[in-house]
């Protein structure tokens, strides 16, 4: 466990030193401009706009970091051959992978938390106070984080056996596909053949289902999110990440480095 | 019976090659050798001979096509065994966002040292490799020679029983080479087993108990450096001074090479005494008699040329 933690903390340190967290400046500026601009409109929908905009930015920024940094987690180490000295230490390849995953998820957690704090500050600026229903925003942020963790695991898996560019394409492709799980399972009314319907229905259970993670609308309108959904999404993300990381470990453990 | 520190049995490595990786390129062919405990073993060969491949196989960076190897009696697939091994990769490259101190501290964590012990070891190692004043500088600002020193420090940080060094002298200036050589000698004195690759033959002659010469993925010979050279002794060299006006010496001088005021004559070992008698009779003054020993370099070049000739013959035969 300490080995995984060592790799994770070093990955976090790398991200910080590579100025990954600089995106927070962009987010802070966005929130400040939005708060000032929305405050001037004052149509009673200030908080809805701020929350929608803020959560969308948190999600997009997080996803971009997850995909672009995620695919480099392993490939960069292989390319630069920094892995040689590390693998000569008493560390298993799967421990390295899980550590890398943990390090980027930690980075993204810190990043997302900072952005969430910025969002709440902007909200405070326009509303001057918080309500109990604003807690839903925290749940939405948590779901974004779970979604991002799945994307990191996928990026890591692809980077274990393909080039960074292809890994980006595959990860982005799966993410987009994962937003249309509901449509894939409900092709019965359309004109497609039963075989295609069966195929899409089958594949929809393998693809990551990101639809359940989107509670931005509920958060923007202060609606409650069922507790069961929080449990369900947490379990789903944990199991999905575990399976993808296990697959990545199997691939990576057999890989000859250059 | 003691177990060899490194035992390699029939180790072969093929790399995929050609369009769609349908062909195979053999990088290492049926390597069988062993390195005894406490021995300094030099792995000699030109670039692409299979030295680094062997070391990467031993460290689990790549996997063998066939064959097996053990280090300290444990299979190379056993990662826990890495606690007792130190490895310096060829042309090492490390996380350039870290300082040398941070890198060594990071690596030391994998051996379970306490924070205080890590700090002490890192300081000691930086001093040992001559980087005590550069420990706080990010590695991106390091020269190749400095990275090589960091590489050596991380390899011996945990006082391993077996040290595997891939081209440890590469990229170093003469002073750096001397320092690394001293570190290797110190490791040797401490009873550690050392396997290192090099193509700098004087280093091998100076440091190794035994050397193995590898060319074209095949081990060509293993022995003491002097044994290897001794295998190809090329006769005797007689240095003498003689009067050129003497008719008796004319025939001998015709076969000798002049160097300054002296002449050098190369003769087969079996005709040494006969030639000495002839020189004595001609009134020549013999100043030196020595065995002509080809250097390791000459032996090495001979093997490379032999391997190339064999490859060419196979190619012609194949056509």
Question: How would you characterize this protein structure?
Answer:
The complex is a heterodimer of chains A (258) and B (319). In chain A, 77% of the residues lie in helices and 0% in strands. In chain A, helix 2 (23-41) runs antiparallel to helix 3 and helix 3 (46-70) packs antiparallel against helix 6. Chain A is globular and about 60 Å long. Chain A has one domain (2-253). Chain A contains 12 helices and no strands. Chain B has a 6-stranded mixed beta sheet with strand order 6-7-8-3-9-10, with helices on both faces. Chain B has a 4-stranded antiparallel beta sheet with strand order 2-1-4-5. Chain B has a 4-stranded antiparallel beta sheet with strand order 12-13-11-14. Chain B has helices spanning 51-58, 100-109, 115-128, 144-156, 174-189, 201-207, 225-230, 250-255, 272-281, 296-318, and strands at residues 6-17, 23-35, 40-44, 66-71, 74-75, 85-88, 162-166, 193-198, 210-215, 218-223, 236-241, 257-259, 262-267, 285-291. In chain B, 35% of the residues lie in helices and 27% in strands. Chain B is an alpha/beta fold and 319 residues long. Chain B is elongated and about 80 Å long. Chain B has 10 helices and 14 strands. The mean pLDDT of chain B is 85. The longest helix of chain B is centred in the last third of the chain and has 23 residues, at 296-318. In chain B, helix 2 (100-109) packs across helix 3. The A-B interface holds A 2-3, 6, 10, 13-14, 17-18, 80-92, 254, 256-257 and B 15, 56, 59-63, 79-83, 85-89, 91-95, 97-98, 106-107, 109-112, 151, 154-155.
């Amino acid at each position: 466990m300490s080995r995984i933690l060592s790799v994770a903390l070093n990955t976090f340190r790398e991200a910080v030193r590579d100025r990954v967290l600089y995106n927070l400046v962009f987010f802070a500026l966005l929130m400040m401009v939005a708060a000032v601009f929305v405050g001037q409109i004052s149509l009673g929908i200030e908080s809805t706009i701020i929350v929608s905009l803020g959560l969308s930015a948190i999600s997009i920024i997080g996803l971009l970091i997850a995909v672009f940094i995620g695919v480099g987690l392993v490939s960069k180490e292989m390319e630069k051959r920094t892995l040689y000295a590390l693998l000569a230490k008493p560390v298993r390849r799967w421990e390295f992978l899980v550590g890398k995953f943990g390090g980027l998820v930690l980075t993204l957690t810190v990043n997302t938390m900072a952005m969430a704090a910025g969002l709440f500050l902007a909200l405070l600026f326009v509303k001057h106070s918080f309500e109990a229903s604003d807690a839903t925003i925290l749940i939405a942020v948590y779901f974004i984080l779970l979604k991002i963790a799945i994307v990191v695991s996928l990026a890591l898996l692809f980077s274990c056996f393909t080039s960074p560019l292809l890994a980006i394409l595959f990860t982005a492709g799966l993410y987009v596909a994962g937003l249309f799980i509901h449509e894939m399972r409900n092709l019965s009314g359309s004109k497609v053949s039963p075989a295609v319907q069966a195929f899409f229905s089958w594949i929809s259970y393998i693809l990551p289902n990101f639809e359940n993670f989107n509670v931005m609308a509920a958060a923007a309108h202060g609606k409650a999110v069922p507790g069961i959904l929080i449990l369900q999404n947490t379990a789903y993300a944990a199991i999905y990440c575990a399976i993808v990381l296990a697959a990545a470990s199997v691939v990576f453990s057999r890989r000859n480095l250059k | 019976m003691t177990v060899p520190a490194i035992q390699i049995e029939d180790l072969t490595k093929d790399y995929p090659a050609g369009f769609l990786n349908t062909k195979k390129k053999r990088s290492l062919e049926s390597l069988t050798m062993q390195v005894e405990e406490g021995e300094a073993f030099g792995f000699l060969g030109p670039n692409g001979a299979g030295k680094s491949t062997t070391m990467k196989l031993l460290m689990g960076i790549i996997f063998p096509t066939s064959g097996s190897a053990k280090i300290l009696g444990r299979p190379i697939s056993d990662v826990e065994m890495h606690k007792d091994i130190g490895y310096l990769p060829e042309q090492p490259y490390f996380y350039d966002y870290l300082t040398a101190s941070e890198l060594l501290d990071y690596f030391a964590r994998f051996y379970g040292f306490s924070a205080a012990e890590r700090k002490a070891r890192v300081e000691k190692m930086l001093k040992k490799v001559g980087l005590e004043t550069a420990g706080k500088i990010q590695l991106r600002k390091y020269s190749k020679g400095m990275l090589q020193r960091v590489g050596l420090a991380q390899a011996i940080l945990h006082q391993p029983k077996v040290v595997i060094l891939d081209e440890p002298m590469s990229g170093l200036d003469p002073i750096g080479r001397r320092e690394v050589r001293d570190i290797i000698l110190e490791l040797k004195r401490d009873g550690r087993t050392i396997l290192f690759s090099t193509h700098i033959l004087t280093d091998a002659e100076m440091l190794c108990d035994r050397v193995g010469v590898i060319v074209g993925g095949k081990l060509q010979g293993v022995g003491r450096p002097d044994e290897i050279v001794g295998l190809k002794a090329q006769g005797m060299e007689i240095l003498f001074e003689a009067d050129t006006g003497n008719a008796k010496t004319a025939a001998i001088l015709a076969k000798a090479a002049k160097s300054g005021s002296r002449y050098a004559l190369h003769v087969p070992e079996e005709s040494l005494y006969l030639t000495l008698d002839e020189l004595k009779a001609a009134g020549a003054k013999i100043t030196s008699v020595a065995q002509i020993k080809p250097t390791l370099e000459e032996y090495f070049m001979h093997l490379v040329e032999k391997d190339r000739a064999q490859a060419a013959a196979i190619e012609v035969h194949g056509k």
